Every structure is written in structure tokens, then in C-alpha cells.
Amino acid sequence: MTSKYLVYLTHNLQVYRRLVGVQLRSQLAYRGQFALDTLSTFVVTGLEFASLALVFSRFEQIQGWTLAEVAFLYGLVEMAFGIMDLVFAGFDPHVFGDRVRLGSFDQMLLRPINLTVQVFGSDLTLRRLGKITVGVGIFSYALSNATIVWSVPKLLYVVVTGVSLILFFGALFIAGATITFWTVNSVEALNIFTYGGSYMMSYPMHIYQTWLRRFFTFIVPAAFLNYYPALYVLDKPDPFNLPRVMQFVAPGVGIAMFLLALMFWRYGISKYQSTGT
Amino acid sequence: MRLFVELATRAFKRALRYRAAALAGLATNFFFGLLNASILVALLGERSNVAGFDAQGVITYTGVSQALIAYLSMFGSYELMTSVYTGEVASDLLKPMHLLRYYLAQDFGHACAQFLLRGITIMAIYELMFDMVYPQGVFAWLALLVALLFAWGISFVWRFLVNLSSFWSPNAKGFGRLAFLSATFFSGMLMPLDFFPDWVQRICYFTPFPSMLYTVSSIYLNRITPEQMLQALVMQVVWIFVLVGVCQWVLTRGVRRLVIVGG
A102, A113, A119, A273: which one has the fewest Cβ atoms less than 10 Å from its Cβ? Predict the structure, then answer.
């Protein structure tokens, strides 16, 4: 029984490697374009953070958090979102919506290969390396400038939080892609959850209005994936006095969101009707 | 002129047809405006005034910025380069109208539609949610209207210029993304320029981008005196002339080396 699963798994991995290999070769074939795209992702992400860093010379802190402390949240989000965007690019609602609309998703249905593996392998946007690099830079700035009393559990938990964040953002992409089965087009509003969500998570949760904060704590549990872990790592007090255990639920929330999104995706596929194009 | 009006009207009607997209765009603009407002208000903290901005001021500033995004196509437009890459530009060039004017007319119609769909509406939603600042006096309102028109002019010529890179490079899309999104920083869309250190502000004012967005919000927020308003308007006109000049020069050279592959 287990060996059968193992064969299935290695087969899927091989398929994934091949599909992604094709993507990589085609992207690297146009070196000029690849370099330019990566550079522009780098500059755009960098300028966004620079605009914040530059005004900090005037303000020095935002509701009790220094620039280095905000950079902890900001860098973690940029890295996690960048890595997710690289790996889950096939599920990007904009790209996937086009696939559904133009009918190339129907071709995937016809192939005797696991559908999810195919979508994963359908794109791997290398230019996101530009965003990830900036994220690493911002996060390093945070680690070297914020006062953090390090311990082994903290170090491990930072890594766990990062992975959980990737899963969480991946869940948003998968759920967004699934929605396009019904809406076919007009996925603009989903930007609020993906790009809006990650933008919001780059800042400490207590700067937002109560209703907004509650929404992103209890309905979309974003706060547990970086704000609460950051409170633990940076030894900051919790202004909302939630039980301290909430600082450690990031992996649970990340995995749960990811599994829920996968279930929604399966459900979407079972209900899928082609547009006929 | 009749041709211009006709083209603009058609583009206007075309843009009005995408109501679902406009609604989604509105929701996104409002959400990002709300986040920006939260961040700026949190930065102000206990201080009642920083560089001439109070809480009411920064909230209005985020509203004006978000209201201008669609009107000024702050994230860029790619029509001309698409036309170059598909070869359609050949028929564009045969039209009894200068290429620049042909695109100008359509962009004007598109901008007017966006101004109604996503400009006025964002301000109305903000008005319902927040306590806002308004331009004081008839002169400020007039200056605002003129500045809005000139701001669109700068935006159009700048975007046209970036699009012209497609006459030379097959990577104009990537180049455009870099150019358009970098401009948001210098235009004051990410942060009010007055919050930046002086040396950064000086760099920003070497570019046409503050004249695109920051001028409009400065007038709206009564941050500048009537004399400064006039200066800002003159500055906008100067930028339009400079950019149109560069555009003409580049366009002539681009058209000369353009090769359309038949098919």
C-alpha cells in the first residue's frame, strides 16, 4: 500500500520537474527580458519599502514600533509572498482566469496526469526572485537592527512561521483560482485579499481600525501568521490581550487554510463546466 | 477636431461599458486607500501636524491619490506597444491624423470615463466615511480643474513616450512596468513628498511626476498659496512641452526604422 503511494508520488514529482523544466528553459531563453523583469520587480519592491524607510527619518516610530520592528513583519511577508508567487504562479487568479476563459484548462483535463500537478507545473515565474531578494534584504535589516533576545525555539519558530505564511498565501491563490471557475473573468476584486492582504500584513495589526483588524484576525486569520509570531520573537506586549498561546498557532492556521483551499479546489474541479472556447 | 471628438466619445463609451471591472477597481482603490490612511494616521500618532499635514489632511490625501489612479493610468497603459507588436500600428500610421493625436483622443475619452467611474465615486465614498478637506475658494477650484487637465496631459505624453520604446526593443512591456511603477514613488503616490528628506524631494522634482499627482493633491488640500498654484500650473505646462518635444523627436526616428512584417 505504502509503496504504491510512493510510486505515485515519485511519478508526480518527476512530471512536475519536467513541466517546470520547460518553463525555466523558456524563460531563460529570453535573457534580456528575464533580466529586465527581475530588475523591475526588484526596483518596484525596493521603492515601496524605501518610501516607508525614508519617512521614518521624520517619524521615528509607528504606534510604538521602530522601523526595524516593522521591517521584521514587512520582510517576512515579502519573502513569503515572493516564494509563494514563484511556486504557485500557475494558480495566480489572473493567469488561471485566462486559462479558464481561453479553454487551455480543458486541455489539462484531457491529459492522464494529476491536474493539480499540472497547474503547479504550468508556470514558475523566475522574475519573483527580484521580490524575494528585496524581502531577504529587509528581513536582514530587521534582524540586525531590532533588539531580539534570541533562543533556539525563537529561531525555529521564525522558520516555521515563514513556511506557514507561504502556505497561507498559497491558499489565497488556490482559492482565488478556484473562484474563476464560476466568475471566469473579473478577478480584480481578489486583489484585495492577495495583494491587499499581504500589504496589510506588512504593518503591525494595532494600527488598523477595529473592524478591519477583527476581520483579518477572526474571519481571515492573517494576524496569527505574522503579527502574533512577531510579538513573541520581538517580546512585544499584545495590545489586545489574547491568550499567549495565540502567538504559536501560525503553523496550525497555515496548514488548515491550505487544506481548506485544496478542498475548495477539488470541489471546484468537480463542478467545472467549460466555457466552450 | 471632429475626428478628435468622435474618437474620444467612442473611447469614453467603451470604457463606460466595463462596469463590473470598474466596481472591482473601486473596491480595490478604497481598500488600499484605507490601508494607506491607517498607516499615515498611525505615523502621525500624537502629533497634530507634520509638514503641514494633520490627520484629516493625510486621509484626504489618500483619497485624492486613489481617485487619480485610474484617471491618470498611474500603473501605465500598453495600447501603443501592443499595436506595434501586432503590426496594427501600420494602419494607425495611415490614418488621416497624427499618431500622437490619434492616441491622445482615445486616451482623453478613456480618462474622462475613469474620472467619473473611479474618481468622483472614490471621493464620494470617502466623504461618507471620513471628515474631509476641500479646496477653499473659487480660485482653488478653478486651479484644481486646470491642474487635473494638465496632469492627464503629462501622464498621457509620458506613457506614450514609454510605449515608443517598442519601436526599438522587443521587451517594451518589462521596460514599461519598470518605468510606470517607479514613477509612482516620484509622483507622491506612495508617500506625501513633503514627508521625505529634502534631498529625496529635490530628486523627485527633477522629474515630471510630482506635476502629475502631487500638484493636484496639494491644490485640493489647500497646501499651497494661489501664487504657488500658478507656479505649479506653469510647471505642468513646461513639462507637457518638454515631453511632447521629446516624443516627436523619438517618434520620427522610431517610424523611420519601423518594419512591419506582412501577414
Answer: A273
